[in-house]
Amino acid sequence: MKNSTSTQKNSTAEPDMFERLSSKKTKLAVVGLGYVGLPLAIEFSKRFSVIGFDVNESRIKMMNLGIDPSKELHANAFLGNDIIFTSNAEMLKEASFFIVAVPTPVDLMNKPDLRPVISASNTIGNFIKKGDYVVYESTVYPGCTEEDCLPILEKLSGLKLNEDFKLGYSPERINPGDKQRTLRTVIKVVSGSDSNSLDQIAKVYETVVDAGVFKAKSIMVAEASKVIENTQRDLNIALMNELSLIFDKMNINTYDVLEAAGTKWNFLKFSPGLVGGHCIGVDPYYLTSKAASLGYDAKVITASRFINDNMARNVAQKIIRHVLRTTPDLNKASVLVKGVTFKENVSDIRNSKIIDTVKEILAFNIKVDIEDPYADGEEVLREYGLRLANSVGKEYDAVLITVPHIPYLKLEEEYYLSITKPSACIADLKGIMRNKINQREYWTL
User: Fold this and answer.
1) Cβ neighbours, 10 Å, residue 352
2) N or C: which end of the chain has fewer CB within 10 A?
3) DSSP 101
4) All domains of the chain, ordered by start, with CATH?
């Protein structure tokens, strides 16, 4: 296997990047200001002079007003920091330490879509100078940073790696909606193209990560560590989902089974559910794609992806069967979907698998109302062509609770009785109403 460039020898007369940043003789630029990039830029701006760059001008306008478009940061987080938000790439000339935090999605065929990270590399390649650093945080397959991004940087800049500039990779570990496991409290993996760059990159990140950093042996090791974190979770959730399908046929509640099995000291506590979002439902495809390019068929990972990707359809079919059984005239049937974000207590709707469930139900001409206290209605309409309901109706044939949003946890059975027919079912994917629904048909995954 190819060895990382991190084993190459260093020059003894290299300038100290950490010192240059600390003394504000140069600036740090974060390219991509989403869930990952914005918190990172804000934290770095408490110590360094920062340029926050994003191609989305509307997001830049919001941030300049002290508003986080992702609704993760409070307005106070923007106060008193040394940071400029801009969509003008020319301002990147002032930076010497670049961090790439753009999305890495998959396309309609579940193939890695590297366009955002390639675009960011093209932008940075036009501005990096001798002595500069470029660190990628975007989740990619092992080898992408050095095989796909590095050639672009070298070609556009005319510079050579380690002779003229340094390269690094530090996988993001941001968990949207999580106020305990934050950027500062989770150990950060870092890597560099040689030992000197590794030390410098580690020093820079240590200023914003109280939990400390872990120095990976190479860039490829750091890339691989990130992609398997979510692949491991995907496999475990797939097992839970398959078990839920089996137990459903036995009329056994999966959560009752997990509760019993969880009394064993080494039982891993995962639960079934729809696997969406921009990490667990995406990252495994980067690994299987890389494996396929090397002539290896990743059977276990692929099987897990198949199970998890099909859970949305399985949920829809269960609801459709109930409606067909209880409401002969489908033109009068209706379903309420509570929750459209990919996880609880966040506004992020990217790769939300509940959309697949909704579209499957709509295909049977069953009316579907969608409500979510966290989602942005305009974004849902723009991304999926679906409108959020202005208000919750009455006489639903089924209610689908998709995520345990805080407002949903406060609801009691009386609420569901008031909005459903006596023959309705309450489909509760995460089991938040388990043992609380007695007067309606009830099921969980």
Assistant:
1) 27
2) N
3) -
4) 5-217 (3.40.50.720), 236-443 (3.40.50.720)
**β-pairing verdict for 188-192 and 50-53:** unpaired
Q: What is the CA radius of gyration of the chain?
A: 24
Kindly give the residue spans of alpha helices, DSSP state H, lying in 161-218: 195-206
The model carries a pTM of 0.90
Quick one: which of 210, 208, 194, 204 has its CA closest to 20?
204
Mean pLDDT of the chain: 94
- The tens digit of pLDDT for each residue in 370-384 reads 999 999 999 999 999
Judged by DSSP in three states, 29 sits in strand
Q: What is the DSSP letter of 112?
A: B
Specify whether the CB–CB gap between 341 and 347 falls below 8 A. yes
Residue 9 DSSP label: P
- Candidates 236, 223, 235; CA nearest to 302 is 235
Closest CA to 338 of 408, 263, 271: 408
Cα–Cα distance, 118 to 34 (Å, whole number): 17
CA distances from 420 to 47, 362, 365, 395 (A): 55, 19, 19, 4
What's the rounded Cα separation, in Å, for the pair 179 and 357? 29
User: Can you tell me the distance from the alpha carbon of 187 to that of 173, in angstroms, rounded to the nearest whole number?
Assistant: 9
Q: Which residues are catalytic?
A: 279
Tokens 């000339």 correspond to 93
pLDDT at position 417: 98
Angle, in degrees to the nearest 10, between helices 299-326 and 283-293: 140
**What is the pLDDT at residue 318?**
95
The tokens describing 435, both together, are 């043992």
CA dihedral 377, 382, 386, 387 (to 10 degrees): 30
220: which residues sit within 8 A by CB, 6+ positions away? 2, 4, 142, 143, 146
Task: Match 């945080």 to its residue by tokens.
Answer: 137
